[in-house]
Amino acid sequence: MSGDPFDEGGGSILRQPKAVWATAGASVVAFMGIGLVDPVLPSIAKGLEATPSQVSLLFTSYFLITAVAMLVTGFVSSRIGGKKTLLAGLALVVIFAALSGTSGSVGELVGFRAGWGLGNALFVSTSLAVIVGAAAGGSAAAILLYESALGLGMACGPLLGAVLGDASWRFPFFGTAILMAIGFIAITLFLKEQPKPARKTSLLDPVKALGHGGLASAAASAFFYNYAFFTVLAFTPFVLNMSPYRSGAVFFAWGVLLAVFSVLVAPKLQERFGSLRVLGGSLVLMAIDLVLLGYGNHTMAVAGTIVSGAFIGLNNTVYTELALGVSNAPRPVASAGYNFVRWFAAAAAPFLAPKIEEWTDIHMPFLVAACAAVVGAAIVGVRRKSLTMEAEELLPEHDREDAATPAGAAQPVS
């Protein structure tokens, strides 16, 4: 990996076709939707007279549907094509984001977020493959663009949620619907239909791909990491107990660190220390940070939340590359199987963290999350050999890119 992440193959990755920018722009908004509700979670609980554990189901329903949908996205995109899959996903997000803003009860909102999760899965699972197929500069440049979109979306989501949510908790949902509608129009205008693959993806292909020891190890480690990640994202707003603006500022700073460490710092650390050392070390440091976040005072909780963005950024980049390169399965299939496993943790953490608090105290959810991060690091250490890419086990790079481009790679990050 080049030491300069913005100089791939002798040219700037910023010189891209309109189709790439349209897809990347819509990806930013899609990732904004993940953290959009963070600053307004307490406001939603108050407005709908719901408990923190009930409101946290907004994440659980969203990611549970996303996990299951990972088995479907490749099946769909390999039959109707990348562009139609993107547009179908965007249309569902527009509809269910708008409906979320009209919710009269927390049950309705949780249900609408599930529909939103299906749309988001269809979109983000296909967007990486579309960017890989249309980007100038090869797959490395495409992955970097995708990671940049993720970081920017994660940073701006809480900020938009805070600005709109200060007036009403409903406005962030309407704002997302409008932005995704703009993305729908941009992709309709600028993206040409992607060629369909020679072989259609079956529903069981992603599960079969997990038979590869390296991919199964990456998925297992990412499962525990995602539990820690989404404990921070879904439970911390209740612990901070701040106004939408203040909470939005905290998570904006968190998202900026996530973006910087994902796109700029991770490649340099990987080049110097190797991917697995960076991942294992980052997971251990994240565990320490979670303990300080959970057991420190309010100022330490704010600082710990922000600093966690750095470790999450590092982890996201390394896990992305492991998911896409550790096995000999085509990228869309390997990535779908990997995400099928790890998104279940993203669904579990928002539900379990408030429950653990109810059963014990406010500190214990963070201790459990820290333990999960340590387990993730332990899997990386124990399974180091299977996680090391062996060139003779892999398809040639151009074959892997060809396999990935038409079918739609399942979203391999965060």
UniProtKB/TrEMBL annotation:
It is found in: Cell membrane. Coiled coil: none annotated. The chain crosses the membrane at residues 19-37, 57-78, 85-102, 114-136, 143-165, 171-191, 212-235, 247-266, 278-295, 362-382. Residues 394-414 are annotated as: Disordered. CDD domains: MFS_YfmO_like (cd17474). It comes from the Bacteria. Keywords: Membrane, Transmembrane, Transmembrane helix. Residues 19-388 form the Major facilitator superfamily (MFS) profile domain. It is a multi-pass membrane protein. Gene3D superfamilies: MFS general substrate transporter like domains. PANTHER family: MULTIDRUG EFFLUX PROTEIN YFMO (PTHR43683:SF1). This is MFS transporter.
